[in-house]
Every structure is written in C-alpha cells, then in structure tokens.
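agent> step 3/5: call structure_predict on target 'Uracil-DNA glycosylase' (Paucihalobacter ruber).
agent> reason: downstream docking stage needs a structural representation; sequence fetched in step 2, passing through unchanged.
tool.input:
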Amino acid sequence: MNVTINDSWKSHLATEFNQPYFLSLAEFVKTEYKTHQCFPPGKEIFAAFDYCSFNDLKVVIIGQDPYHGVGQANGLCFSVHDGISHPPSLINIFKELEKDLGIPYPKSGNLSKWAKQGVLLLNATLTVRNSQAGSHQNRGWEQFTDTVISIISKEKEKVVFLLWGNYAKQKNKLIDITKHHVLTAGHPSPLSANRGLWFGNKHFSKTNFLLEQDGLLQIDWSL
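tool.output (status=ok):
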C-alpha cells in the first residue's frame, strides 16, 4: 500500500507511516486487496484526508467501518458515491438534517461537499472485505485513526467533534475537552434511531452555532 495523503497531513503523520504496526497493516491491506474484493477502492482509502486538509479542519465525524456493499464506500464515513442508494444510517442523517435546518432531503449521498469545507469524515477502520462487516478491524487501523484524533486534539483548537453511537463516544478520552467541543448522540442506524437516541439531536445547527461563536465560517450542510 503506497500511502498517498494530502500534503497538509504529511508533516503530522509521516512518522506514523514508519511505525511497525503501520507497516504490518500496510502488508495486510495489500494482500487483502490482491486476494479479495475490498472497499473502498485503493485510491479512496485516504479520501477523508484528501478532501479535508489539516489546516481547514474544524469538524470531525467519526464512523466505525466502511460500507461493505459493492459500489458504496468512498472513503468518507457515512458517505456513498453519486447514484448509489442511501444506506439506512445515511437516510436518518438526512432526515435529521431536514428536521434541524429545513434542508430538503438530498438526491446524492456523496458527502464530499462537507469534507471540502473542513469536516473530517473519519472511519475508525479504513478498509473492509466485500460483504464482511468488521473484517479489517483489529489490524492496526484503529491505532492509526486514534492517533489522528489525538493529533487533532493536541495541535488544533475549537474543533467540533460529533460522536454518534457508543463506539464513537469512546473516542472522547482522546479529546482535550478544555479547548474543543464534543457533541454526542445515539448512532443514526435504525436500531438506535428507532429507540429515540438519534432524532432531535440538532447537531448540525449546534455545530454551526459553535463555529460562529468561535469566529469560524459555518458549514453549508446542503448537498
């Protein structure tokens, strides 16, 4: 796996790419992509970093695993390519967006417009086998993405972290809450949303309020 990542991240992550765990992870991912159908496509594994530069970053949304259906994953958590049916979690995200800000339900599930405005759409695990959820967990990706969150916490300030669901909420321990904002809610998956843990969180309007309070440009959440 040749790591090609946005230049703005290189100085912050260069040493990580030479760590023994990452070299082992890279070999594992190379072999997996050669011997199985894996997602997202190789060139999109680091898309979250390519679309959202370190300098522009002001919001972080943490997912767990890439979508494992053909054509779905595009390297941004919860996002799918244009023309792909919206998975259930994304449907609930868009329903909340519509309730919160009155933004009409979008046709496209591609969230790259958010990423380009400084929203890091980070999955904890960046790759997966076709139809095998969680198949690349506990191979080193989580160590890498935990380091990313820690670096953001240490080297940035006034970032809004959106932690949706119990898995994402565990990342709270990596964040310095004295200089960042943390908003938590249930996961947007139907299981959680139907138990009343997702809808009504108003995270999109709350994020923009916090950004405005800190003198930063708000996110245009429309797609």
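agent> step 4/5: record observation. The mean pLDDT is 96.
agent> proceeding.
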